[in-house]
Write a structure and sequence with these properties.
alpha+beta, 3 domains, three-stranded antiparallel β-sheet, two-stranded antiparallel ribbon, 6 helices, globular
Length: 219
């Protein structure tokens, strides 16, 4: 089902978080729940395997800094159930997918091939790794522009991996993220949510986004 959704055709625009091609005019992503950009991508390619970037503009690989690469490797090492000997291969595949602008399909295929894991788990890991990398890329870009703070925005979609079968921890996370909605936080620190410092989109299942606070505003 997950793969079928990603191969859907017709008028659509892609979610900037997970790459899912939503129907034109959708306010929230039908796959991950993230708030959609107002910019649609005209005439999306019919061959989704060649559609590497979910962004309306060409992704710039130079934004993937050494610190982004280091944290990508660290996040892979922290994954449960991954054989240590496979980490270098998975890191190489993950880095290539990030440099290609969140190429979900290539990383999912690599995880299935290398670790022989179910596709659902591979998609889950891919979304999580890409979300963390994207959050850091955006944060570093904002910092380079002199932006130091942002507003936490709850996306009105449950911050859970599977909302139909939430765990107690996910229910608590979702409630905490609703409470965080509208709160201002320091980009360098994040926001203290549910007892830990974090940022929108970083926790597994989190669909929250952020809005930068421009230095010349009074927010």
């Amino acid at each position: 089902m997950d793969g079928q959704k990603r191969n859907a055709t017709g008028d659509a625009h892609a979610c900037t978080r997970c790459g899912f091609r939503n129907v034109e005019g959708a306010r929230f992503c039908g796959n991950c729940g993230a708030q959609m950009s107002a910019v649609a991508i005209p005439n999306p390619p019919t061959d989704f395997n060649r559609f590497h970037s979910p962004f309306a503009v060409e992704f710039d690989p130079s934004t993937v800094s050494e610190s982004v690469k280091a944290n990508l490797r660290k996040n892979i090492e922290l994954l449960g159930g991954i054989e240590k000997k496979h980490i270098p291969q998975i890191y190489e595949a993950a880095l290539s997918s990030v440099l290609a602008g969140r190429d979900h399909r290539s990383l999912v295929a690599a995880l299935v091939r290398i670790e022989e894991m179910p596709q659902d788990r591979a998609w889950e890991i891919t979304r999580n790794l890409h979300n963390k990398a994207t959050e850091q890329i955006n944060r570093e870009r904002q910092s380079s522009l002199g932006i130091t703070h942002a507003i936490w925005m709850y996306a009105n979609a449950p911050c859970m991996k599977d909302p139909s079968h939430p765990t107690e921890a996910e229910i608590q996370q979702d409630a905490a993220h609703k409470t965080a909605n509208g709160k201002r936080y320091d980009l360098s620190k994040g926001l203290l949510v549910n007892g830990k410092w974090t940022r929108p989109g970083v926790e597994e299942g989190c669909k929250c986004v952020s809005r930068a606070v421009l230095p010349w505003t009074k927010e």
